[in-house]
Design brief:
The protein is an alpha+beta fold. It has five helices and ten strands; from the N terminus they run ββββααβαβαββαββ. A hairpin with a 7-residue loop joins strand 3 and strand 4.
């Protein structure tokens, strides 16, 4: 299913909580064999998202603190950057499909949010004052070309979460 300039895809996962999880892309052919339609699959995916804890949003300081094992950081400067993903930190860019879960952060910051597609595993959230969409898109393009595996790239576009409407659009 199309979502802006992206595609919404579905995976069958198993063993994610045991640490030895795996995931397989669900194809139209498999849906036919299973006797389910896209609407059923979409409903199950959205329900699973909620049941599995929804979107996780952490400040970049918290994420770096976890990676370094030093605990939660105290803030590196005036600009706040947040990471949105899921509890497994795999395929977490799907959080863009649940943009209503960004509302509390937008309200806390008193700003619409830019969404930078970091990889298929997460997106970055920044207040609208962080820069222009063109500047941020340049950063996304550079990171995509030099740091992100081709199969894990989403887009070179920057997106905007509008707090009043609760919608996401290309910035």
């Amino acid at each position: 299913r199309r979502f802006l300039d992206l595609a919404e895809v579905y995976y069958f996962t198993t063993g994610m909580d045991g640490g030895e999880g795996s995931a397989a892309l669900i194809t139209d052919g498999q849906m036919g064999c299973w006797g389910i339609c896209r609407r059923d699959l979409e409903g199950a995916a959205y329900e699973n998202h909620k049941r599995n804890g929804g979107t996780s949003i952490q400040s970049m300081d918290e994420v770096i603190g976890e990676l370094l094992g030093t605990g939660i950081g105290g803030g590196c400067g005036p600009m706040q950057m947040y990471v949105a993903t899921n509890r497994w930190k795999l395929g977490g860019a799907s959080s863009m499909l649940f943009a209503d879960e960004f509302r509390w952060l937008a309200q806390e910051l008193g700003s619409d949010l830019y969404i930078l597609p970091s990889s298929i595993h997460e997106v970055l959230l920044l207040p609208e004052s962080a820069g222009s969409p063109e500047e941020l898109a340049g950063i996304v393009r550079e990171v995509n070309r030099t740091q992100v595996l081709p199969e894990e790239r989403l887009s070179d576009n920057v997106y905007l979460y509008e707090r009043k409407s609760g919608s996401v659009k290309i910035a």
